[in-house]
UniProtKB/TrEMBL annotation, chain A:
Keywords: FAD, Flavoprotein, Oxidoreductase. Gene3D superfamilies: Acyl-CoA dehydrogenase/oxidase, N-terminal domain, Butyryl-CoA Dehydrogenase, subunit A, domain 2, Butyryl-CoA Dehydrogenase, subunit A, domain 3. This is Acyl-CoA dehydrogenase family protein. InterPro entries: Acyl-CoA_Oxase/DH_mid-dom, Acyl-CoA_Oxase/DH_mid-dom_sf, AcylCo_DH-like_C, AcylCo_DH/oxidase_C, AcylCoA_DH/ox_N, AcylCoA_DH/ox_N_sf, AcylCoA_DH/oxidase_NM_dom_sf, Mycobact_Acyl-CoA_DH. It comes from Actinomadura livida. Residues 227-379 form the Acyl-CoA dehydrogenase/oxidase C-terminal domain. The keyword Flavoprotein applies. The keyword Oxidoreductase applies. Its cofactor is FAD. Residues 10-115 form the Acyl-CoA dehydrogenase/oxidase N-terminal domain.
From TrEMBL, chain B:
Residues 6-115 form the Acyl-CoA dehydrogenase/oxidase N-terminal domain. It holds the Pfam family Acyl-CoA_dh_1. PANTHER family: ACYL-COA DEHYDROGENASE, ACYL-COA DEHYDROGENASE FADE28. It comes from Actinomadura livida. InterPro entries: Acyl-CoA_Oxase/DH_mid-dom (IPR006091), Acyl-CoA_Oxase/DH_mid-dom_sf (IPR046373), AcylCo_DH-like_C (IPR036250), AcylCo_DH/oxidase_C (IPR009075), AcylCoA_DH/ox_N (IPR013786), AcylCoA_DH/ox_N_sf (IPR037069), AcylCoA_DH/oxidase_NM_dom_sf (IPR009100). This is Acyl-CoA dehydrogenase family protein.
Length: 390, 373
């Protein structure tokens, strides 16, 4: 049995490799619009050849792979450095629609999402509802077979590139908190939607704010029941992301190797402080790889991702920050040069990374929220009465 | 990379955990004034044959591998029990297995497997160096064989050991020798160590008769790396105990009319401790569960595991003392034993910076010779 699996796994790996050999698109072009088109074209190629959505059901255009083959799929994709799926949160909204969507929603959105004919962005956080997401105030007032949505969202990564938004809105009373939230799918180009990029501390425009001014959204585009949006948004949606954990570890491995090469090139490793810090980062990236392997082994053996998956996010985000802080220190005064300076080192990647990774412990739940989650959900420490239930 | 224990290995863990819960008694050990629990050692041999796990079947053991030893050392580390197993099974057995001398293996391994022999390896001298090839202790060859002169420090279970493997300079390089614990000319003095659960001794050799085990310094180096991997599992187990103790205390200790574990200051420290514990487990498991076909791979695994697990254990043990507050500072509570063990383990087979320098050389951060080695 195990032998059959192993033979099948290797045959599957070979089929992914053959597909990539024939179709992988090579180096990405310059320019944001060109890159988006490039990523969309790659998603369409994968979909059209049956190599999209490793975890998705076949009826929705996916491959419906068992978990070990999802891991193989991710390994092979990472090996050739193909573009990521365009937009953000498609891997959150997709599984949500698969699980909770109506047949009409599934027919309308799932295949186009997988093919990247529809690019998504998330609309959850608000200016006054960050970590305290249940305090969100964007309202959806019922008007016949439509909702009328008014309010503001913020920190919406790549919303300026999105065709559709998945948005949490208040359908209950102001005080209803998580009991009065609904989950809507909103056309990003509907009248009354305004998307404005926000310049972040790196100087780039990566995320956006979204204004909704009396935007009409069909009730048919609500996922799940009215006021059930919090539960739906918080439901754990399978382990698709864990299948890519080894890929992420491999990505960090490459960054550390590049930093080691830079330190050697600059003659910095003769300094005991430098080589010892590098040795520490080397160990931490090894540990990440083992965390990923343990998570995957645990899912295969028990169906649950186990303790390593809960600590990995915190471990990796702190690692990223410290690595880049160290890289800037290593560069000395050259660490102060921006990416446009002709004398900057490696096009300013370490300086930009040093700034960009400040967001690692803020976005997608702050590190403090993650610590609360580990303490309460994993270690079983008593819940803070002020915090909403999950 | 596959990092998972088999159901049989998990069963071994459960058996061992039950055994240690019943028979290991840290307080009795502390009150006895000696870190060596002879009664527990005997029970381990007769009851579950732990000493023979890593000894091949032809020498009376059960021939298991690094994965089983990882489980054993993790559980022993969690219970702070049976310190002599690290010296015997973690250090001496790999040295004997690597020495290539059938006669020596046949002479010593069966006694280790049945629990009648405690064995150790004596390396460190007055300079505190972990360099396996720079012994100043001498071995002079005479008509009756070799005679050892010199002093070794921090010899793990050196006062209780029946068999002492000792490094000494023959004039043609550092070699490894076997000395009986009762050999004439050998003076043993147990160190008064800060960590009362780990026995270490100073051994003075005055023309002590010795038998050559191997002239290949790689034998000692390999044994040390195996011991570092075993130690990493102990450290992961100890760190896990500290986290569990801290979390357990935070759930029951009330201040301001609520459990202190409700406060984020406590929660966040516990979460960070768990991050460290899982890192330690990952590092220790990877070192034990992945095959190391060559000495360099083994060395990278050993150094990586030591760097990660030493930091994790000292951090988590300090966190456990802090979360326990006043009671954590008392002799009565066990947490200080783990805090001390964590510090001992951090330097036991090389300090963290020594391991970092070594890993830097092994993983290509620095080149051979550029850091003074």
């Amino acid at each position: 049995m195990a032998t059959d699996d192993a033979t099948g796994d290797e045959a599957f790996r070979a089929s992914v490799r053959a597909f990539l050999k024939e179709h992988a698109p090579g180096r990405p072009p310059r320019g944001a619009a060109e890159r988006l088109a490039f990523a969309k074209a790659w998603a369409a190629t994968k979909f059209d050849h049956g190599f999209a959505g490793p975890s998705w059901p076949r009826e929705h255009g996916g491959m419906d792979l068992p978990f070990p083959r999802q891991v193989i799929y991710n390994e092979e994709m990472a090996r050739v450095r193909v573009p990521a799926h365009p937009g953000t949160g498609w891997d959150m909204v997709g599984p949500t629609v698969i699980k909770y969507g109506t047949p009409e929603q599934q027919a309308a959105y799932l295949r186009p999402t997988l093919r990247a004919d529809i690019v998504w962005a998330q609309g959850f956080s608000e200016p006054d509802a960050g970590s305290d997401l249940p305090g969100l105030r964007t309202t959806a007032r019922r008007d016949g077979d439509h909702y009328v949505v008014t309010g503001q969202k913020v920190w919406n990564t790549n919303a300026d590139k999105a065709d559709m938004l998945f948005v949490l809105v208040r359908t209950g009373t102001r005080e209803s908190r998580q009991k009065g939230i609904s989950y809507l799918l909103v056309d990003a180009r509907a009248p009354g939607v305004t998307v404005r990029p926000i310049r972040d501390m790196t100087g780039r425009e990566h995320f956006c704010e979204i204004f909704f001014d009396e935007v009409r959204v069909p009730v048919a585009d609500r996922v799940g029941e009215e006021n059930e949006g919090w539960r739906i948004a918080r439901t754990t949606l399978g382990h698709e992301r864990s299948a890519g954990a080894l890929t992420q570890a491999a990505f960090y491995r490459r960054i550390v190797d590049e930093l080691i090469a830079l330190a050697r090139e600059r003659g910095a490793v003769a300094d005991p402080g430098v080589r010892r810090r590098l040795a520490d980062f080397d160990v931490r990236v090894r540990v990440m790889n083992v965390h990923a392997a343990r998570t995957i082994a645990s899912i295969i053996a028990t169906g649950e991702p186990g303790p390593t998956s809960s600590v990995s996010r915190l471990y990796n985000s702190v690692f990223e920050q410290e690595l880049h802080e160290f890289a800037v220190d290593l560069l000395g005064p050259f660490g102060l040069l921006g990416r446009g300076d002709p004398d900057t080192v490696q096009r300013g990647r370490w300086t930009t990374g040093w700034l960009a990774t400040r967001a690692s412990t803020i976005g997608a739940g702050t590190a403090e929220i993650h610590r609360n989650t580990i303490a309460e959900q994993v270690l079983g420490l008593p819940r803070d009465p002020a915090m909403p239930p999950r | 990379m596959e990092i998972a224990f088999t159901p049989e290995q998990e069963e071994l863990r459960a058996v061992l955990r039950g055994f240690l819960a019943e028979h290991a008694d840290r307080r009795r050990l502390l009150d006895s004034g000696s870190p060596h629990d002879a009664e527990l050692w005997r029970r381990m041999a007769t009851g579950i044959a732990v000493q023979g796990l890593a000894v091949p079947e032809e020498y009376g053991g059960s021939g298991f591998g690094a994965a089983e030893m990882c489980v054993v050392f993790e559980e022993l580390g969690g219970a702070l029990a049976a310190g002599a197993l690290l010296a015997t099974a973690g250090l001496a057995v790999p040295a004997l297995l690597a020495c290539g001398d059938e006669e020596i293996k046949a002479e010593h391994l069966p006694g280790i497997a049945d629990g009648s022999t405690i064995a150790t390896l004596a390396l460190v001298e007055a300079d505190g160096s972990w360099d396996a090839e720079a012994a100043r202790t001498t071995a002079k060859e005479g008509a009756d064989g070799f005679a050892i002169d010199g002093t070794k420090y921090f010899v793990l279970d050196g006062a209780a050991a029946d068999l002492i493997l000792v490094t000494a300079d023959t004039g043609a390089g550092t070699a490894l020798f076997a000395v009986s614990g009762t050999a004439p000319g050998l003076t043993r003095r147990a160190h008064e160590a800060v960590d009362p659960t780990r026995e270490m001794a100073r051994l003075d050799f005055a023309s002590v008769p010795a038998r050559l085990v191997s002239r290949d310094p790689a034998v000692t180096g390999t044994a040390l790396d195996h011991a570092r991997i075993a130690l990493a599992a102990e450290q992961a187990g100890g760190a896990r105990w500290c986290l569990d103790a801290a979390v357990g205390y935070a759930k029951t200790r009330h201040q301001f009319d609520r459990p202190i574990g409700e406060f984020q200051a406590i929660k966040h420290r516990c979460a960070d401790m768990m991050v460290a514990v899982e890192a330690a487990r990952s590092a220790a498991y990877a070192a034990a569960l992945t095959p190391h076909p060559d000495p360099a791979g083994l060395a990278v695994a050993a150094a990586s595991a030591q760097i990660c697990c030493s930091r994790a254990y000292t951090e988590v043990a300090a966190g456990a003392v802090q979360i326990h507050g006043g009671i954590g500072f008392t002799w009565e509570h066990d947490v200080h034993l783990y805090y001390k063990r964590a510090k001992t383990d951090e330097v036991l087979f090389g300090t963290p910076d020594w391991h970092r320098d070594r890993l830097a050389r092994l993983s290509g951060i620095t080149e051979e010779g550029t850091d003074g080695h």
